[in-house]
Write a structure and sequence with these properties.
Strand content: under 5%
Structural class: mainly alpha
Number of domains: 1
Helix content: over 70%
Number of strands: 0
Largest sheet: none
């Protein structure tokens, strides 16, 4: 059943992003920023954590999940390191995902040739 919830929640987030782009005539870059900020705000308010518990990867993989991970990392780092955690927590929490994205992007760039 967890797979169904993940599929539904992730799919609804993607559909919502497409509707926002179409209705508000936002560029993809502005839509990305909007959804990351919404995920960070929802994570800071404690709402997004409940969605992550219910939907798992369906909530952590889409863009709001990145904002949630940043806020969660900052919160944890502030508890461990104090004020300095405000500056380091987000980077530490998101480092694995960013590193994977860079490595997979590099592998794709090396494996395939762009069309002219």
């Amino acid at each position: 059943m967890m797979f169904v919830w993940a599929f539904l929640v992730g799919g609804l987030m993607c559909a919502l992003a497409q509707l926002v782009m179409d209705a508000l005539k936002l560029t993809p870059a502005k839509t990305v920023v909007l959804f990351v900020v919404l995920g960070a705000v929802a994570g800071g308010l404690g709402v997004y954590g409940k969605l992550v518990e219910a939907a798992g990867a369906g909530a952590t993989v889409p863009l709001p999940g990145f904002g949630y991970v940043l806020v969660k990392g900052i919160d944890q780092a502030v508890q461990e390191k104090g004020v300095w955690g405000l500056f380091t927590g987000g980077f530490t929490a998101a480092a694995g995902g960013v590193k994977a994205a860079l490595l997979f992007g590099l592998a794709a760039a090396l494996a395939f040739r762009p069309k002219a």
